[in-house]
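Two entries, shown back to back:
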Amino acid sequence: MNSNARYNFFRTCVAILAALTALLIVVPLVYDLAGVRTNLEEIIAPTRAAVTQRKTRAARAPTATAEPQPATMTPTSIPPTPVPPQPTVAVLNNIPVERLLVLNAATRAHVRDIFAQGQAQGRNARVFSKVGDSTMVYPPFMVVFDHKLYRLGKFAYLQPTIDHYAGALGRTSAAVKKGMHTWSQFDPAWSASELCAPNEGPLACEIRLNNPAIAIIRLGANDTEFPREFERNLNAIVRYCLERGIIPVLGTKPDRLEGESNLLNHIVRKTAAAHNIPLWDYDLIAP
């Protein structure tokens, strides 16, 4: 592939990433429009767990363990350049889409560089991983788009993106679990023993199993009393992804358990800006 074709492919991948993040933004709207929230709850989680008071435990620093050596990966062949989806919606709930999806020119350029690095390492351009807590578990996060239980309506331009990531949307991630903290991503005690290697944390396990090009990261609901630890470990998660050629997309959380300060969401925004990576600012539109 010549340099112009490769650049066009990378540019198209950035457009697809933007559409994927736009898909994240409209998920609750599509759920409501299609009436699928109730259907999914009946199919996947028929009984809603009682809301209980979470017991807060002291934060732990990630345990220093030797990282398992990943199997040698064969670089993924670059698929034909798809036609980038064309957005037709500029405002959601009176909020401009560019505020909900922060992906400026400098960030786009950085994303292209990360993507190129990931392709050199054999990352799968058609796969993303979910890294999160209960807000990515219930209701089933993006599962609807792999089960065709939706009507896109005016968001029909997102269908090519749904097709591009078919199979990844409904996949269960080893890095998503109720009660998950940022520091738990590095703790083997939080890993699925039947899937993960000894001394392998959930994040490392998920990357080894799924080989993603993108990681959608939304954490913090369980870290509200430990903002310093949250910031330190969120940065560690971002660096872990970047070092492996994986594009981190940070999402703000839909609750404001800290009160009016909304401190953890401000930390998420700060972290995204510091690393020049995409921000999915769900806090602005969360129900």
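entry 2 starts here
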Amino acid sequence: KFDDVLFHRLPLHIQYEVLKNGNVIFCRNEEEFFEIKRNVLREYLEMSAMYERIKRRVLVCD
């Protein structure tokens, strides 16, 4: 089963999961693909601290 979605329209955390766990079926330009992977990873790492803070606040029981 395949899901055909424009990658750049996916939320950042889903882009990261796709690159982490997905399989490349076809790649026309490996340099561009590497650049996309690098940018997603950089943005995800920048946002991961914020994601963790949000998770902690949501999961805190008073």
